[in-house]
């Protein structure tokens, strides 16, 4: 993920506040202690993936300033920190964090080698904090309400981490299931997103598929009834049989047919997602 190089870069400023800022402040405060990042932590990332050699000058300057880079927008910062926090808390929800869970986490996101140490620091601090994971999920859900693809991708990763240490039957621990369900609700994702994540079929953030809600001209927070009413209204307005009562060219007629097809396709996608 390209965001990590920017998150842990050398420029000053940190834009995220609230629980995300508190978590990062705790992590950086811990790292600012002399050599603390290089000391092994029981059952943590640093013990399983120790730093090789001495910290470089850029890292030392980073810790001394006790600030994280803000080279990207606040929403991306929030996502990066929240991603680590939720993965860390899920890994610990059923007991001590183990190598299988950490390996799954690293495989899901493929952190650049230059940033593995900093991500590990944040992972360990998030794992050990006692704050409620749902507050991270709620803020992420609000921030990405207009584009839930990153949240769906994260849900898929959380399922993979949960299954990393599952037995041959692949059954999840009850605490893991509860965690995933609460995160799904806090993200504000539809039922279809749960099924996709559970089956390992996340929605690609770079998908070229047009947004169904944007086509209907309605927000993702609309109720099932509001979406249904909006679809019916658009169909009445753009149906070729209705427009045929007005003078129109053949090209205009084809455009009307295409628009109705897009409206119906958007409605079908929303129905599948919401299981209507």
From TrEMBL:
It holds the Pfam family DnaJ. Residues 211-275 form the J domain. PANTHER family: CO-CHAPERONE PROTEIN DJLA. This is DnaJ domain-containing protein.
């Amino acid at each position: 993920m390209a965001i990590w190089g920017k998150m842990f870069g050398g420029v000053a400023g940190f834009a995220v506040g609230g629980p995300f800022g508190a978590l990062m402040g705790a992590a950086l405060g811990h790292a600012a202690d002399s050599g603390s990042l290089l000391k092994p932590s029981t059952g943590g990332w640093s013990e399983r993936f120790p730093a090789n050699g001495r910290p470089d000058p850029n890292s030392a300057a980073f810790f001394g300033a006790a600030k994280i880079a803000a080279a990207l927008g606040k929403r991306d910062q929030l996502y990066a920190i929240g991603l680590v926090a939720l993965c860390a808390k899920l890994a610990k929800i059923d007991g001590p964090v183990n190598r299988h869970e950490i390996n799954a986490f690293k495989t899901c996101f493929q952190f650049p080698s230059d940033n593995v140490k900093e991500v590990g620091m944040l992972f360990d601090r998030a794992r050990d904090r006692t704050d409620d994971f749902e507050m991270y999920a709620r803020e992420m859900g609000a921030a990405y309400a207009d584009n839930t693809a990153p949240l769906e991708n994260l849900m898929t990763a959380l399922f993979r981490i949960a299954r990393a240490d599952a037995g041959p039957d692949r059954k999840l621990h009850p605490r893991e299931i509860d965690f995933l369900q609460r995160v799904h609700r806090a993200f504000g994702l539809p039922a279809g997103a749960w099924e996709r994540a559970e089956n390992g079929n996340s929605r690609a953030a770079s998908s070229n598929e047009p947004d169904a809600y944007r086509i209907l001209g309605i927000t993702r927070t609309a109720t099932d009834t509001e979406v249904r009413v909006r679809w019916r209204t658009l169909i009445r307005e753009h149906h070729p049989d209705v427009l045929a009562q007005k003078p129109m060219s053949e090209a205009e007629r084809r455009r009307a047919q295409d628009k109705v097809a897009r409206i119906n396709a958007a409605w079908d996608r929303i129905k599948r997602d919401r299981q209507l």
